[in-house]
């Protein structure tokens, strides 16, 4: 099973032929700019489409702290996204309270463990909306 850097590499090398379909769900590659280093960081993340947008979850497996990629996009919401062989720029935003329940249901339908992750932590797990800008 693909994971971490190997997942990113195989996804990029095969335009998502390997790595997009993963554990009965779908994965995109999110590239953020490091908020301290300014360097690009690419992370494979489960996603679902919602209209023209892409939805991801900053779960970090229920860890008490937000994932680094989420902290990076809060600092700089302009990100790069790869879905299969499509690469594009997007603007990331955290779903507000009135939007989050619908998006949470969408994401738990594809990855039910998100509910378990939320139960494991006191932090509210953010749902992120990626809106294409190019």
UniProtKB/TrEMBL annotation:
InterPro entries: F420H2_quin_Rdtase, Split_barrel_FMN-bd. It catalyses: oxidized coenzyme F420-(gamma-L-Glu)(n) + a quinol + H(+) = reduced coenzyme F420-(gamma-L-Glu)(n) + a quinone. GO terms for molecular function: coenzyme F420 binding; oxidoreductase activity. Pfam families: F420H2_quin_red (PF04075). Belongs to the F420H(2)-dependent quinone reductase family. This is Nitroreductase family deazaflavin-dependent oxidoreductase. It comes from Nonomuraea longispora. The lineage of its organism: Bacteria, Bacillati, Actinomycetota, Actinomycetes, Streptosporangiales. GO terms for cellular component: plasma membrane.
